[in-house]
């Protein structure tokens, strides 16, 4: 078990957003109680990038994270990046 995992522009390297829920589940499985997962990645949509097959919308990324059983907070956006804080609560 780990206390924290931090990723920066890693989710879109999966090459298709459909793989994101599996990644998030694997990270969630690694987290100990109250573990933190910070995810920063590009998003698609208004203000973001224009490849919706590769990049998730802000809501899609939040939903993919929530599927792994974590509480998710969008901390903010900067340019085309969104930063999420996901916490494993047991």
Q: Tell me the quaternary state.
A: single chain
- CA-based shape: globular
Stretches where pLDDT is under 50 for at least 5 consecutive residues are: none
Calculate Rg over CA atoms: 12 Å
Order of helices and strands: EHEHEE
List the helices and strands and how they pair.
Elements: E1 2-8, H1 20-30, E2 31-42, H2 58-66, E3 70-78, E4 81-88
Parallel strand pairs: 1-2
Antiparallel strand pairs: 2-4, 3-4
Keywords:
single chain; 90 residues; alpha+beta; Rossmann fold; four-stranded mixed beta sheet; 2 helices; 4 strands; globular
Structural description of this entry:
This protein is 22% helix and 40% strand. Strand 3 (70-78) and strand 4 form a beta hairpin. With 90 residues, the protein is of the alpha+beta class. It is built from two helices and four strands; from the N terminus they run βαβαββ. It has a single domain, classed as Rossmann fold (3-Layer(aba) Sandwich), CATH 3.40.50. Strands 1-2-4-3 form a four-stranded mixed β-sheet.
């Amino acid at each position: 078990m780990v206390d924290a995992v931090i990723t920066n522009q890693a989710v879109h390297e999966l090459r298709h957003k459909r793989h994101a829920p599996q990644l998030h589940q694997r990270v969630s499985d690694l987290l100990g109680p109250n573990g933190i997962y910070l995810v920063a990645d590009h998003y698609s949509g208004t203000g973001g990038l224009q490849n919706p097959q590769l990049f998730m919308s802000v809501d899609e990324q939040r939903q993919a994270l929530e599927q792994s059983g974590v509480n998710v907070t969008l901390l903010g956006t900067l340019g085309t990046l969104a930063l999420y804080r996901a916490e494993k609560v047991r």
